[in-house]
Amino acid sequence: MWLWFHRLGSPPSFYPFAGRLAAILAVPGLVLLLHGLYGGLWLAPADYQQGEGYRIIFVHVPAAWLSLFGYSAMAVAAVIALIWRMKVAEVFITEAAVLGAGFTAVALVTGMLWGKPMWGTYWVWDARLTSELILLFLYLGILALNSALEDERQAARACSLLALVGAVNVPIVHYSVEWWNTLHQGPTVTKFDAPAIDWRMLFPLLEIALASTLLSAAIVLLRMRNALLWRDRHSRWVQHMLRES
Amino acid sequence: MQEFFSMGGYAAYVWPSYALFLLVLFGNLGTALYQSRQIRRAIQQQGRENPL
Asked: Which residue from B4, B24, B32 is facing A223, i.e. has the nearest CB?
């Protein structure tokens, strides 16, 4: 186990492994995404209150889930990067932040597009919306910090610290709808004893959430490969690999 | 079919949401694959200019 962990921590063995893993994750991800979109747009019935407008949920919830899951994964990587100075973990933080910022923006914009017809407004400063906006700023802050510092290792250390400190916002986003009175609705899916949603709606929702998680993992792995290749471009393993091909 | 695209009058909210979600997902996938080619090419170019 530890040997395996150490080996994958080194870029020369991580690089081919990440490429294979990305392909293995992306294929079922694509199939599941198509099936989920079909289920969400076609098979699921209209909502009795919101009509067809509720179908935004099938992209809004997966985007919001990825925004929180991505940040949590970055916080774990930050601990590993700070303690063991693992290059692969350092690269993960900045590469995942790109995708995380994208999905946080998607969650916010799709939420606004949902809010306008249902609440009558694009935006309110309610706890869920505000904490999700702070999440976007944290992602952007990590990316800005990374590009502001010249030295790669120093930048990675600073980003790890920010990722770790910012993790306090993740439970705030998640529990905001329970801790405060928000215009945003309470949890729908996570009440697993009895989800407050018809299974014909729940199933495609979970499918798209899983599919976009698999595809995002594949994208982050590909981005990590690119970043490691460029970082190590003068090293022996990169020169070796690219000259053979 | 017409009915499907009109989304019960919510078309202006539903379709942009799906478009944005898919754009971010596949835009990122495309960028990652494209950058991989660019980086490999750049490194190989450098290798040809400065042989070991």
From this structure: B32
